[in-house]
């Protein structure tokens, strides 16, 4: 059984969360740390947009500010995700790792085994999504409206969303596991042609996405969710997790990266 590092960074700002994921990727690429599983939350809550996603005309920036959220652009692709009452995970592992397929889609399947086992720990019967048609056919800016290959669905509804990028010979996959979702706040941050279309999309969302507390009999919190998915990733990836404590110097690097990139309008609103 291989030993990976485990970073439990708690709730950080959106900029710090994205900076820490990037820093971990850099350190693993440089051989300074082994593969990493990281769990985290968001404070304040954030709206992350995909690397290639347009903000102008798609995201209601006034709605983001009105709800007290921070917008941040991810290194990974995909559509916008509201990170509020959720457990977020990231996996950082070399592309040359013997268990990692060359194909992005097949790597999703391997890494998502950890998510599948995490849901099992909560006695939730989840399965992998296998879309029959081309994704993003709706043109929606909302991530959880459609599942991608090998994302987790429960009763046909998306229960976890993930995105992946590969840089410097390293795979970074991170994703959102919603514990509770406020649909009104979510749709308050996207631009629609009119209120009628927006309301129709909001009502339809309930048939497309699901949060953990929509499924379980007894509501659970962040700590219980984190414990379940930690056990799930260890089982699903056949790894042992060893806590990694960042040094003051490493945290300094993370804070500098957050300020330079993820707190900058040039990065966040560049598209």
Please give a quick description of this structure.
The chain has eight helices and eleven strands. The chain is α/β, with parallel strands linked by helices.
What can you tell me about this protein's structure?
- There is one protein chain.
- Helices cover 34% and strands 25% of the residues.
- With 271 residues, it is an alpha/beta fold.
- The protein has one domain (2-268): Bira Bifunctional Protein, Domain 2 (BirA Bifunctional Protein, domain 2).
- It starts with a strand and ends with a helix.
Features:
271 residues; alpha/beta; BirA Bifunctional Protein, domain 2; 8-stranded mixed beta sheet; 3-stranded mixed beta sheet; 11 strands; 34% helix; 25% strand
What is the ordering of alpha helices and beta strands? EHEEHEEEHEEEEHHHEHH
CATH class: Alpha Beta
Radius of gyration: 18 Å
Please outline the major beta sheet. 8 strands, mixed
In helices, the fraction of residues equals: 25-40%
Mean pLDDT: 91
- Principal-axis shape equals globular
Strand fraction equals 25-35%
Distance between the termini: 43 Å
Number of helices: 8
What is the annotated CATH architecture?
2-Layer Sandwich
Number of domains: 1
- Topology, number of strands: 11
Strand order of the largest sheet: 7-8-9-10-6-2-1-11
Q: Give me the CATH superfamily.
A: Bira Bifunctional Protein, Domain 2
Structural class: alpha/beta
Poorly predicted segments: 134-139, 141-145
Annotated CATH topology: BirA Bifunctional Protein, domain 2
């Amino acid at each position: 059984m291989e030993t990976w590092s485990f970073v439990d960074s708690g709730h950080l700002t959106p900029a710090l969360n994205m900076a820490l994921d990037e820093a971990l990727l850099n350190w693993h690429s440089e051989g300074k740390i082994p593969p990493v599983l990281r769990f985290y939350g968001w404070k304040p809550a954030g709206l992350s947009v995909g690397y290639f996603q347009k903000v102008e005309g798609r995201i209601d920036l006034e709605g983001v500010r009105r709800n007290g959220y921070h917008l941040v652009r991810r290194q990974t692709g995909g559509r916008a995700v509201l990170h509020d009452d959720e457990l977020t995970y990231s996996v950082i592992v070399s592309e040359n790792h013997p268990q990692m397929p060359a194909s992005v889609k097949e790597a999703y399947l391997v890494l998502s085994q950890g998510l599948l086992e995490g849901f099992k720990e909560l006695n939730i019967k989840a399965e992998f999504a296998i879309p029959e048609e081309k994704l993003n056919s709706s043109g929606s800016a909302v991530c959880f409206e459609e599942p991608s290959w090998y994302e987790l669905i429960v009763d046909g509804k998306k229960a976890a969303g993930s995105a992946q990028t590969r840089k410097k010979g390293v795979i970074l996959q991170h994703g959102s596991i919603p514990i509770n979702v406020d649909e009104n706040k979510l749709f308050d941050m996207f631009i629609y042609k009119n209120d009628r279309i927006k309301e129709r999309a909001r009502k339809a969302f309930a048939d497309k996405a699901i949060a953990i507390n929509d499924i379980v009999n007894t509501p659970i919190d962040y700590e219980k969710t984190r414990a379940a998915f930690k056990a799930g990733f260890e089982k699903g990836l056949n790894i042992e997790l060893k806590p990694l404590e960042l040094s003051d110097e490493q945290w300094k690097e993370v804070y500098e990266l957050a300020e330079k990139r993820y707190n900058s309008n040039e990065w966040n609103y560049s598209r």
